[in-house]
Amino acid sequence: MSRKSSSTKKIKMEEPDSESTQPPQIPHSENQDPPKKKKAAARKKPKSPEASVEPPSADELATQLIEMEALKLRIKAYEAEKNAQKAKTVAENARRFAAEARRVATDARKAAEEARKSAEVEKRAPNEACREVKRAVKAQEDRRKRVEESVPLCNVGLLR
């Protein structure tokens, strides 16, 4: 069976399939313009002089002018608020950076103080080590002397 869009009997008799459930598309006839051409033709119609628009009154113009100025002021206020928010963010970041710089400076001062103290300790270390060696030698000599004093005189020669 052949299918024709003008014959409805044959379409009804055929088994319903996905194509038959959709409505048949009707091609544009020669008498009809495509939709785009209709719109273009509607635009090309000349306007009648009776349908001309009257100019707005002075009150309407003044109202529109005031509304436009109010809108401009709202835009400027919005931009000012946006800039203020940016400035606030920049100031907050600057405070954070300053606090961090103070912490770093404090840490640097503490490290410098520690380095100075360790340099002083290292500077004194050789002298202190020398003193401790001298104390150890003196203590050893003192012990030897005490031992010599406690030992009888006959054994003194053996200790040396």
Key terms for this structure?
about 160 residues, mainly alpha
Account of the 3D structure:
- This protein is an all-alpha fold and 160 residues long.
- Helix content is 73%, strand content 0%.
- The protein has 5 helices and no strands.
- It has helices at residues 8-13, 18-21, 35-44, 58-150, 156-159.
- The longest helix is centred in the middle third of the chain and has 93 residues, at 58-150.
Outline type? rod-shaped
Work out the helix count.
5
Strand content: under 5%
Computed Rg: 55 Å
Overall pLDDT score = 75
What percent of the residues sit in helical stretches (DSSP H or I)? over 70%
Separation of the first and last Cα atoms: 141 Å
Low-confidence stretches: none
Keywords: Coiled coil
Coiled coil: 61-150
Biased composition (Basic residues): 1-10, 36-46
Region (Disordered): 1-61
Tell me the layout of helices and strands.
Layout: H1 8-13, H2 18-21, H3 35-44, H4 58-150, H5 156-159
